[in-house]
DNA sequence: CTCAATGATACAAAAAATATATCACGGATC
DNA sequence: GATCCGTGATATATTTTTTGTATCATTGAG
C-alpha cells in the first residue's frame, strides 16, 4: 500500500502543492504553474486523499497550512531539489564535468606540457577529481588493462598493446646532460659521438624499456655502445648522479627545466633523438574523455 | 527548458529506471514493476531522450550502465527515498507522531500524575519533542493565547478564558503542612479550624490566584481568615519556610511526596478542599493532540 | 539450422491530466 | 440589505500519457 501511495504522488503533484502552499491562492498558483485553476484544485484534493492527510486549511476565503502541510511543503521542496539534482548531476557526468580521472604518467612528462594541461583542465572542470600516479609505460598499460587507471601518459612505441588506444600529446627530444666541471661541459658544441668513451648514468631497462632502447639506438647510430656504469631509478636520480660527476647521460630536453649548477645540458641534433609523449586509454569514461580531449586539443571522443 | 525536463521525468520513470538498472533485464524489471516490457522499453528510451543522456549500454544481449547511468541510479534511488520520506514524514506529523509540544504546568503538578504521563508519552511518541516550562495558571493562559505554548496544566477555575478549552486531567486535595516541632504537629488529628490563630506561609496571590482564593475560602468555611505572615514564591519555598517554623501552610496533598523531616502533613476533610488539574489549549497541533489524548486517556481530538 | 531468449516496433486501449464553462459562497460596497 | 467581486468547487469534454497485446528482429546455443 505504501508503494501504491508513492506511485500516485508525483513530482508534478509536489510542484503543484508547493505553488499553492507558497501562494496560498489557487488562482495565482495555477497561473504560476501555467495551468488553470480547476485541475489544480482537484489535484491538491486528490493528493490529500492519496496520503490521507489534510494539508491545507480551507478557512473561508483564507487558506492556511496545517502542521502536516508545513511538513509536506518542506519535504516536497527537498524532493524537487533532489530530483533536479538527479538530472543535472547525471548530465554533468555524461558531459564529463563530474567524475574521477585516474591519470598515470611517466616521470619525465612532469617537465613538459603535462603540468600546464592539468592546471588548465582543473580550471575548466573543477568538479572532476584527478588522481595522479607516476608509473612506467609498461605499468600504465597493465593498469589500464586492469581497469585501475583511466588515462596514461607514456612514451611510445608500445609493444603488444593493440588493445589500447594512443593519442599523441607532446613531443620532446633527447639531450645530453654533462657534469659542468667535465671537459665536455666547458666546450661550446658537443656531438653525441663525443660521449663514446664516457661512463653513462642511465635508468634501468625495466623502467621505460622503449625509451631506454631509443637511447641505445641513438648512440649506436652515432657509432658507439654506451658504457652504462651506473643505473638509477627516475630521471631525478639519474641527474643527481650526473651532477656529482659519476658520468654523463642522455635525458629528455624538457628535463633541462630541472636546473642544477653542476649540470650542463647540450642538444643532440642526430636524427632519432625525437620522441613523443602520448595518451593511452581503453574505455574512456566521460570525465576521462574530457581530460584527453581538453589536453590533446582534439574535438570529440566516443565515450563508453 | 530545465523546468520542462524536470516536468517530464517523474518518480515513476525513476522507479522504472532503477528496476531496469538493478535487474539489467527489461523483462524481469517489467515483471517487478507489474507492467509489460514494451512500455518499459519505451519509457526508458524516452527518459534518455528527455535528459539527452545515454544511461544504458545496450550491448548485444547484455545490458550495462554508462557512468551517467550509474550516477542516475544513485540519484534516482535517493530521490525515491526522499519522496517516500516526504509522505511518511507528513503522515507522522498528521498523526502526531512527530512535532513539538510546548507544555506549561503549575509547579504543584510535578507531584501528581504529570511526570508519569510525560514519561509514558515519551516512550510511545519518541519523535515528539517536549518543551517543558513551569508557569502560573494565568501566565499559561496568556502564553496559549499568544501562541507560544501548546498545552498547559493548570488549576481551574479559569476566569475570562472562554476561548480556551479545558480537559480534566488529575485531581488533588489540600492538606495542612505543619512544622514537626509545633504543638499541632505532634497531635494525631488536626482540624483546619485549629489553625485559626497560627501564622500562615502562603504564595502570593499573583502566583496562582484561583488556587490562593480556594485556600482563603476553605479557611473562611472553617470560620477564620488566615493570617498570612510570610509569602514565598513556589511551593518548595513555602514548605522550606514551614520547615524552619515560620508558620503553617495549606498545600496540595501530592506535595507530601516532598519529604522533609521537619514537616508533618495532615489531611483536610472539609468540603471544598478538593481541586483539579486540567489541560488547557486552544488550537491543538497533531502532536499536542497526541499528548493531551494520551495523558487524559480520551480518544479523539479534532486537530487543527 | 533451428530454437529459445531478449529487446524493439506498431497499434489499440485505458488512464490521467488539463481546459472550458459554470456554479456557490462570503464579504465588501453603495 | 441588495448587489457585485473575488475565490474556490463542480461538471464535462479534450488532450496527453501510460500501458497492454501482438509481433518482429537479432543473437547465441545446441
Automatic annotation (TrEMBL), chains A, B:
The keyword DNA-binding applies. Residues 9-66 form the HTH lysR-type domain. The keyword Nucleotidyltransferase does not apply. One of its GO terms (cellular component) is protein-DNA complex. It comes from the Bacteria. Pfam families: HTH_1 (PF00126), LysR_substrate (PF03466). Gene3D superfamilies: Periplasmic binding protein-like II, Winged helix-like DNA-binding domain superfamily/Winged helix DNA-binding domain. GO terms for molecular function: DNA binding; DNA-binding transcription factor activity. Keywords: DNA-binding, Transcription, Transcription regulation. Belongs to the LysR transcriptional regulatory family. This is LysR family transcriptional regulator. It comes from Halomonas eurihalina.
Amino acid at each position: 500500500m505504501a508503494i501504491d501511495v508513492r506511485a500516485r504522488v508525483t513530482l508534478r503533484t509536489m510542484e503543484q502543492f508547493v505553488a499553492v502552499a507558497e501562494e496560498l491562492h489557487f488562482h495565482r498558483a495555477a497561473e504560476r504553474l501555467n495551468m488553470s485553476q480547476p485541475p489544480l484544485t482537484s489535484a491538491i484534493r486528490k493528493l490529500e486523499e492519496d496520503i490521507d492527510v489534510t494539508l491545507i486549511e480551507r478557512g473561508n476565503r483564507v487558506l492556511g497550512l496545517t502542521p502536516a502541510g508545513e511538513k509536506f511543503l518542506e519535504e516536497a521542496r527537498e524532493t524537487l531539489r533532489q530530483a533536479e539534482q538527479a538530472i543535472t548531476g547525471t548530465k554533468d557526468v555524461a558531459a564529463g564535468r563530474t567524475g574521477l580521472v585516474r591519470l598515470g604518467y611517466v616521470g619525465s612528462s612532469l617537465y613538459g606540457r603535462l603540468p600546464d594541461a592539468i592546471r588548465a583542465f582543473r580550471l575548466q572542470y573543477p568538479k572532476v577529481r584527478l588522481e595522479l600516479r607516476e608509473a612506467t609505460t609498461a605499468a600504465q598499460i597493465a593498469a589500464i588493462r586492469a581497469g585501475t587507471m583511466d588515462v596514461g601518459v607514456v612514451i611510445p612505441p608500445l609493444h603488444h598493446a593493440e588493445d589500447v588506444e594512443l593519442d599523441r600529446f607532446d613531443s620532446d627530444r633527447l639531450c645530453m646532460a654533462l657534469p659542468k666541471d667535465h671537459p665536455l661541459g666547458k666546450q661550446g658544441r658537443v656531438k653525441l659521438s663525443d660521449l663514446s668513451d664516457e661512463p653513462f648514468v642511465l635508468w634501468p631497462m625495466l623502467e621505460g624499456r622503449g625509451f631506454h632502447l631509443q637511447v641505445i639506438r641513438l648512440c649506436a647510430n652515432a657509432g658507439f655502445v654506451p658504457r652504462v656504469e651506473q643505473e638509477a631509478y627516475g630521471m631525478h636520480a639519474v641527474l643527481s648522479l650526473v651532477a656529482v660527476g659519476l658520468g654523463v647521460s642522455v635525458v629528455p630536453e624538457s628535463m633541462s627545466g630541472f636546473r642544477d649548477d653542476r649540470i650542463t645540458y647540450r642538444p643532440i641534433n642526430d636524427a632519432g633523438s625525437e620522441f613523443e609523449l602520448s595518451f593511452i586509454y581503453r574505455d574512456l569514461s566521460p570525465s576521462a574523455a574530457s581530460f584527453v580531449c581538453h589536453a590533446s586539443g582534439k574535438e570529440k571522443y566516443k565515450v563508453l
